[in-house]
């Protein structure tokens, strides 16, 4: 029986291994992590992450051929294939600070594999890593090998949160990179055989190691670039009276461009886009490619600009101050159908409003108060370290209250910000909300999900990104 072990029980490791176990009943899959609380949650009825369809898959396999354990060394030593899905945060100090990936957790995983292995292993990079990580891992393993042979593969994940299980069941492609040696090709085939249980062969792409590592960074950079492109257009649309939704629709009809990822918003978030682009920038700079590095830096700059622009629009339209005013924030997760808040634009928007002394009342159907307070008091990039290395009890931000109902959040508010495109927000009773708000009542739709005309009929002053401006905003100077 083939045994697979995955080091890291997070957003990538947990769902990916659950689906492998589900699709390959003949393979034993163990997910290991040193975090006792995380493993306890995976073994409970309340899984540590929210992802549609994940519950059913886990419950069907758990205890049969899917195991969650803190016995890291035992499962690593018994496995034939080891997936490594540990955190690769952005460095906050030293060489490459603010851009380069911190490979501390990767290196300690590699050293532990070398310490406990008694048989040959295939080691698979699953977390997003900078190009040439495989080479570093190979060196650590070979210099500590004690006669055991290791093959390193790169098998980056291409999951979108909110649809991760669907993405795993029916992937666009599975990418496997390995050495172009007989042993390397044999290792590629072994991993290919696992995916071939349910993925058609023409969707399993094999490349060399560096191409696989770089393809992941490139894919995320291209997607983020599309969002920054349409967000840059949204600013121009507001200035000229064009409607960004109409522009996106017209542009997306060109089959060479396509319609996906062309929705203007308050900005992109999530655990990958910014981190991977910073990583790409660092690699370009290390290779002397300054112009290429500057090109990708601009994608992040436009994203930051979009978030700042949104905050400035709120403050300027409310008579240039939100000091002491209650602002309702609807949505804190970086997108709908996930509880994930990593790099969510809501953090920067909330911090911007708090900087102007606003009082915030936040509601998100999937994010806890503890998580929101943690995010608003944490330093940048701290979120990507394992939970036990994050600040234990972050100081609560006292101007923030977290509520479990949109009507409570908006009661007596001066303005509402929509920061996540949850479907529930489209069907709220906005007449009831309007009646209970301070006047003039503002709505700032950072996701373009509301019917602007209807809201204006009710009496709201509405700002929707990239849409023709309400007359109210025309005279307001927005600092950029």
UniProtKB/TrEMBL annotation:
It comes from the Eukaryota. Its EC number is 1.1.1.22. Gene3D superfamilies: Cytochrome c1, transmembrane anchor, C-terminal, NAD(P)-binding Rossmann-like Domain. NAD(+) binds at residues 8-13, 33, 38, 86-90, 127-128, 161, 272-275, 342. It catalyses: UDP-alpha-D-glucose + 2 NAD(+) + H2O = UDP-alpha-D-glucuronate + 2 NADH + 3 H(+). The keyword NAD applies. The keyword Transmembrane does not apply. SUPFAM superfamilies: 6-phosphogluconate dehydrogenase C-terminal domain-like, NAD(P)-binding Rossmann-fold domains, UDP-glucose/GDP-mannose dehydrogenase C-terminal domain. GO terms for biological process: glycosaminoglycan biosynthetic process; UDP-glucuronate biosynthetic process. Keywords: NAD, Oxidoreductase. Pathway: Nucleotide-sugar biosynthesis; UDP-alpha-D-glucuronate biosynthesis; UDP-alpha-D-glucuronate from UDP-alpha-D-glucose: step 1/1. Residues 328-452 form the UDP-glucose/GDP-mannose dehydrogenase C-terminal domain. It is an enzyme of class 1 (oxidoreductase). GO terms for cellular component: nucleus. The active site is at residue 272. GO terms for molecular function: NAD binding; UDP-glucose 6-dehydrogenase activity. Belongs to the UDP-glucose/GDP-mannose dehydrogenase family. PANTHER family: UDP-GLUCOSE 6-DEHYDROGENASE (PTHR11374:SF3), UDP-GLUCOSE DEHYDROGENASE/UDP-MANNAC DEHYDROGENASE (PTHR11374). This is UDP-glucose 6-dehydrogenase.
């Amino acid at each position: 029986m083939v045994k697979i072990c995955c080091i890291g029980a997070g957003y990538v490791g947990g769902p990916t291994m659950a689906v492998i176990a589900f699709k390959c009943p003949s393979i034993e899959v163990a997910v290991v992590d040193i975090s006792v609380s995380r493993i306890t949650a995976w073994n409970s009825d309340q899984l540590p992450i929210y992802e549609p369809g994940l519950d059913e898959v886990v419950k069907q396999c758990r205890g049969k051929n899917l195991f969650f354990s803190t016995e890291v060394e035992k499962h690593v030593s018994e496995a034939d294939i080891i997936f490594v899905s540990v955190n690769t945060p952005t460095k906050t100090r030293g060489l490459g600070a603010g851009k380069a990936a911190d490979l501390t957790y990767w290196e300690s995983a590699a050293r532990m594999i070398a310490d406990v292995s008694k048989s040959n292993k295939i080691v698979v990079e699953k977390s997003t890593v900078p190009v040439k990580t495989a080479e570093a891992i190979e060196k650590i393993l070979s210099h500590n090998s004690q006669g055991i042979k290791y093959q390193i593969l790169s098998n980056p994940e291409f999951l979108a949160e909110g649809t991760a299980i669907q993405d795993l069941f029916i992937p666009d492609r599975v990418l496997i990179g390995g050495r172009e040696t007989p042993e390397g090709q044999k290792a590629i085939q072994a991993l290919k055989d696992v995916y071939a249980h349910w993925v058609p062969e023409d969707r399993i792409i094999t490349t060399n190691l560096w191409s696989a590592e770089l393809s992941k960074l490139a894919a995320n950079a291209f997607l983020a670039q599309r969002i920054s492109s349409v967000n840059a257009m949204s600013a121009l649309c507001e200035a000229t009276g064009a409607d960004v939704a109409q522009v996106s629709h017209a542009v997306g009809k060109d089959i060479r461009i396509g319609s996906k990822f062309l929705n203007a918003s308050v900005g992109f978030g999530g655990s990958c886009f910014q981190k991977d682009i910073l990583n790409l920038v660092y690699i370009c700079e290390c290779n002397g490619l300054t112009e290429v590095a500057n090109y990708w830096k601009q994608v992040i700059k436009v994203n930051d600009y979009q978030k700042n622009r949104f905050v400035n629009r709120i403050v300027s339209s409310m008579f240039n101050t939100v000091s002491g005013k209650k602002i309702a924030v609807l949505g804190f997760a970086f997108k709908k159908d996930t509880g994930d808040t990593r790099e969510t634009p809501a953090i920067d928007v909330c911090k911007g409003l708090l900087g102007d002394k606003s009082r915030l009342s936040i509601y998100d159907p999937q994010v806890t108060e503890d998580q929101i307070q943690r995010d608003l008091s944490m330093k940048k990039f701290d979120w990507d370290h394992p939970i036990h290395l994050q600040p234990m009890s972050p100081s609560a931000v006292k101007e923030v209250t977290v509520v479990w109902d949109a009507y409570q959040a908006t009661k007596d508010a001066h303005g509402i910000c929509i920061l996540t495109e949850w479907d529930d927000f489209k069907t709220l009773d906005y007449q009831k909300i309007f009646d209970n708000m301070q006047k003039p009542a503002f709505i700032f739709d950072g996701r373009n999900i509301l019917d602007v005309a209807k809201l204006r009929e009710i009496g709201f002053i509405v700002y929707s990104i990239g849409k023709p401006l309400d007359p109210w905003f025309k005279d307001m100077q927005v600092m950029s």
